[in-house]
Amino acid sequence: MKYSLTVNGANRTVDVAPDTPLLWVLRDHLELTGTKFGCGIGQCGACTVHLNGVPTRACMTPVSTVGRMKVTTIEGLAPAAGKLHPLQQAWTELDVAQCGYCQPGQLMTAAALLRDNPKPTDEDIDGALAGNICRCGTYTRIRQGIKRAAELTAGGKEAAR
Amino acid sequence: MSATTTPRTVNRRDFLKLTGLAGGGFALAFQIRSARGGATSAGGDFRPNAFIRIAASGAVTIVSKQPEMGQGVKTSLPMIIAEQLEVPWSSVTIEQGDFDEKLYGGQSAGGSRSTPNNYDQFHLLGATVRTMLVEAAARTWKVPAAECRAVEGTVVHSSGKKLGYGALAATAATLEVPAKEAVRLKEPKDFKLLGKRIAQVDTPRIVTGQPLFGLDLRVPGMLYAVYEKCPAFGGKVVSANLDFIKTLPGVKDAFILEGNGKVKELNPGVAIIADSTWAAFSARRQLKVTWDEGKVASESWDTFVAEARAKAAGPGQRTLRRDGDVAQALAGAAKKVSAEYVYPFISHANLEPQNTTAHFREGRLELWSPTQVPANGVAMVTRVLNIPADKITLHLTRAGGGFGRRIGTDYLVEAAAIAQRVPAPVKLTWSREDDLRHDQYRPGGLHFLQGGLDAQGRVTAWKNHFFTFGEGGQPGSGGSLSPDEFPGRWIPNFLAEQTMFDTGWPMGPWRAPGSCVFSWVFHSFIDELAHAAGRDPLEFRLELLGTRDEMPAGGGGGGKGKQGGGYSVARMRNILKFTAEKAGWGKKKFARGSGAGIAFHFSHQGYFAQVAEVTVSKDGQVKVDRFVTGGDVGRQIVNLSGAENQVEGSVVDGLGTLLTQELNIERGRVVQGNFHEYPLIRITDSPAKIETHFLSTDHPTTGIGEPAIPPVAPAVCNAIFAATGKRVRQMPLSRVDLRWS
Ligand code: FES
Ligand code: FES
Fold first, then answer.
1. ipTM over 0.95
2. Which of A67, B4, B306, B605 is the residue whose CA sits 20 to 30 A from B466?
3. In CATH, what is the architecture of B301-346+441-559+567-735?
4. In what order do the strands lie in the sheet with B154-157?
5. pTM above the 0.90 mark?
6. Separation in Å, CA of B111 to nearest CA in chain A
7. pLDDT band at residue B31, thresholds of 50, 70 and 90?
8. Contact assignment for A126 to B684 by CB distance below 8 Å
9. What is A86-154's CATH superfamily?
């Protein structure tokens, strides 16, 4: 079946079986391998993308259900080429990653949190990120990273004023 | 020219003598330019050795030879070269080297050895090249080299003249490599980079989702493979519905591989080759295989545990260590404590499932693999598939977690065997279920302990009957207890006996093998003894360590090793006191339900002590409020951010294994298949606060991927006891009732 998708603002067409999870469409067919495979059953969050801004498990999302929803992946998180999202900036400043495999998923979940809650507490962060496993145990830095990104965002808004 | 000091040159044999490198990797690396007939490439680069390249533009490239799996070695080891080379970190590009031990020397990443194995040589590498650049400048200016010094990628003369490394590259390339004696190393007081917090070099790619990991690999024309193995370890394929599978959409081929009869090498199974991962996964759901499970199907964890309990009071199969007379000492003890400790088999569960891409054509094999020990992979392919090593190219990809799992290379040899049958490059992807059910596990075990105290509350007797699990007649990795493991050698009447159950279950190194579980059992039981004696757990431990500064190896046959062996009691005492002080041990008052616990451990050349502060709710939920680590890994922390990250990760990992991780092995197969059945620790259970402190001591710099994890679980369990009066003697905690009122 042919599907026409909007991924990171671009129209992309793929010809795949209707039950193909968005995860594998992205990874195998659109060569967007930033979205990771960790469990395939919605448990680890490594495959988190945004569908119309809502963090979603791409491994549990058949391509046939995506329709006109806008897909945003880690490759499309930065606001523009050569620019970083405040979270990406904070992740770099604080050297959050260890192996890095979970981090695209962590970042996508965190991005939705920050958009809806610009000053999250540790509790807010734990609640929002509870679905994202980090096998390397970078949770402390993930909390710090989100708070730092909140600062950067607030600072950016102030500077723009 | 007479004013210029010409460093004495050495031939390869002298160099080997000078550096004492049996493997000769670095010496060979230094030799590269003569082998290539000159250190300049067509582009005018200066390539003094296999690790460093300086372009005429001044761009510096450093090759990282070690496999990167999140331990940060791709950043930390090149930092050493950059420091000694005297180049600004921002001007350096790091490249991952392929597997080539002739060129680079050893490339194994395991046992926390990457840093200690390479530390001194990497300093020398960087400093040697800096010396050559200084010499090149001196010759250019016709001045003594002593009047020149390297500063941030340039050489500066005392008169103020300056030349960038790029401008010096061509001249430097004509010079002989100086002898070690002619090279002056930068002193630690002049370090600009080492000891700083530096973000991992792959960070920009990680945070923007660029291809990096094994699973991200794409080769033109590539096909996708899955491989179904028998659920019971080592079982053989009798038949499979291959003809039907081949008719399914996207499927290109399906075939059976016999395996080589070794459960940690090439297992028998069914390969499905398809034009996408999903097509392969989908076809696999319709695969029907008849298996011959073999005798492993009679082996279950529960049966072994029952047998251990029945045999606990009897003698062990082997005596590991016997000092004094334990029976007599126990009989005469003022107080006796006995306990059974048990921990299950667990999996590594790297978040990136095992995978490898392989391309076999015209007798040559090209591989892309996330492996910790590439040499194992190549040797295994050669042995099992008869492909000579010189016909194998192995590219190292970043690995989504290692933890010892990728020391095993079963998945790599699987991909290679599949590729031999496929006329295209092929990527083998394991599912999570494959990963959990075909790991090389951390062995479980049971300890039946008895301890005796005298009237003054000192430990006089320690008896342990340890039940472990083996494969092929040997205990699995981490399943053998060193006779020198603490507190062996410290207690006058000491008996450690072992009984092993031989199994067909695959076991392998799991981050700080042995140390993790032994530290948990022994530091928990020491805590039991301290409380039985009515003593403060810290003071009790310090007394146990005693006043001597060194504990020599031996007495029970233990050698120098990762566990036990020669032991600096002074370093351990110091780090224990240092950590207790940082944590404010004994100074805090805790309400009921909260408390602090302490533990220490020496492994992988690192001395670590830890204090956990926990709160246990009335319904038995444990929360770690604060976790303090003190570590002594010698003189120099290479990358402070990386080192702290390893410790923070160790704390979370140690806590995670304690909280929930458990595999049941029934009839020779793992019951759990995915994370809903084998939960990993999540952010919600991660400690609220993790504090890491390093104590620099005048000893060689050692690794940090492992030694911080062993004391985590006992520190937490000892804190749980302080909080609730409940002693945890079973892993995982999810099986222990910690409710209190
Ligand atoms: S891969 Fe989708 S949640 Fe794990
Ligand atoms: S950084 Fe390795 S899984 Fe999170």
1. yes
2. B605
3. 2-Layer Sandwich (3.30)
4. B148-151, B154-157, B162-164
5. yes
6. 17
7. very low
8. yes
9. [2Fe-2S]-binding domain (1.10.150.120)
